[in-house]
Amino acid sequence: MSQLQAVKLIAFDLDGTLVDSAPDLALAINAMLLDLGREQFPEQTIRHWVGNGAEVLIKRALSGSSAISSDIEESLYLQAKDLFVQHYSEKLCVASKLYDGVAESLEQLSKLNVPMTIVTNKPGVFTQPLLEALNLAQYFDVVLSGDSLPRKKPDPLPLQHLVERCEVEMADLLMVGDSKNDIQAAKAAGCRSLGLTYGYNYGEDIALSGPDFVADSLVSLLELIKGSVTA
Ligand SMILES: O=C(O)COP(=O)(O)O
């Protein structure tokens, strides 16, 4: 992996990048489907539906497919959403775990004084409690959730908002994520991106989205950043 020019700000995706949240998301989705008397799905299937926020996840579950059916009634969606929020809030961090290398890498990165932020499509009601449950909240100066702004990734708006708020140039920002939504947002915004190979990318190879860097662990990010930070 080649070295980076100075990185002055890192934006991390959350689900599939820092935390494997799919087990708890799948439990909450299946509890919702059970309450509605509908077919439940294996975690392995639900994993591939994560990435575009809770509304899309719920609608995919109601469709039984990653392609959302056009005949989901608004009243059914609203009922399902209430059930999902209730179930996921109750068991937000039971089976969810940090990926290998995440805790150590964030600690090391914080010592290098590179400001770190979160840009997730997860709704805000879940983001901060999950960061706290995983003991990560202290690392992040800014946390943008899927409903913090009018549009979410792959739209560039969250990254544009972030650089303005943190008073850095877009060229100083590195987006780190596991999904094509992260890489597409970075490309649309004009910042660099690092794609991680282990998360949820609808079963696709992240390299196909063309990130500037590909890594199979956050430890590689740490090495890359160390190379870009001048003492
Ligand atoms: O909640 C989601 O759908 C995905 O969230 P993420 O942007 O942190 O991957």
TrEMBL record:
EC number: 3.1.3.18
Enzyme class: hydrolase
GO biological process per UniProt: carbohydrate metabolic process; DNA repair; glycolate biosynthetic process
Keyword presence, Iron-sulfur: no
GO cellular component terms given for this protein: cytosol
Active site positions: D13 (nucleophile)
Keyword annotations from UniProtKB, A to Z: Carbohydrate metabolism, Hydrolase, Magnesium, Metal-binding
Keyword Heme assigned: no
Chain positions recorded as Mg(2+) binding sites: D13, D15, D178
Gene3D superfamilies per record: HAD superfamily/HAD-like, Putative phosphatase, domain 2
GO MF annotation terms: metal ion binding; phosphoglycolate phosphatase activity
InterPro entries for the chain: HAD-like_hydrolase_sf, HAD-like_sf, HAD-SF_hydro_IA, HAD_2, HAD_sf, PGP-like_dom2, PGPase_prok
Reaction(s) this enzyme catalyzes, per UniProt: 2-phosphoglycolate + H2O = glycolate + phosphate
Main function: Specifically catalyzes the dephosphorylation of 2-phosphoglycolate. Is involved in the dissimilation of the intracellular 2-phosphoglycolate formed during the DNA repair of 3'-phosphoglycolate ends, a major class of DNA lesions induced by oxidative stress.
Family statement: Belongs to the HAD-like hydrolase superfamily. CbbY/CbbZ/Gph/YieH family.
The name this protein goes by in its record: Phosphoglycolate phosphatase
Species name: Agarivorans albus MKT 106
